[in-house]
Design a protein that fits this description.
CATH topology: Rossmann fold
Order of helices and strands: EHHEHH
Number of helices: 4
CATH architecture: 3-Layer(aba) Sandwich
Number of strands: 2
CATH class: Alpha Beta
Largest sheet: 2 strands, parallel
Structural class: alpha+beta
Distance between the termini: 13 Å
Strand order of the largest sheet: 1-2
Radius of gyration: 14 Å
Shape: globular
Length: about 100
């Protein structure tokens, strides 16, 4: 399993790579994925996720918009910006996940 987070708020991705919780930079630019803008992974959340997750990916707001459009047009779903990445294997940016899985 992988995380997908806004590019400027990729604290889980960086935390998994470092082996310890990392903070997002103060004053990071806003993102349309407002549900995913925590400053750092929660202590309990990271302790649970660390052994279960293989890594993380940082996505741009444009990639999120593409996934939202894909979910609406193809899957007939109306989703909020943090949601399309849950169905990532179906989205137009799935090659990004395929590349990560092959690493």
């Amino acid at each position: 399993m992988w995380t997908a987070e806004p590019a400027a708020y990729d604290d889980h991705r960086r935390s998994l790579a470092a082996g310890r919780r990392q903070r997002n930079a103060p004053g990071a630019p806003p993102s349309i994925c407002d549900a995913l803008l925590a400053p750092t992974p929660g202590e309990l959340t990271f302790a649970i996720n660390q052994p279960l997750l293989r890594g993380g990916l940082a996505v741009s707001d444009d990639e999120v918009r593409q996934a939202i459009v894909f979910a609406a047009r193809t899957l007939k779903l109306v989703v909020e910006p943090a949601a399309p990445w849950r169905s990532q294997p179906c989205s137009p940016a799935s090659s990004m996940f395929a590349d990560a899985l092959l690493r």
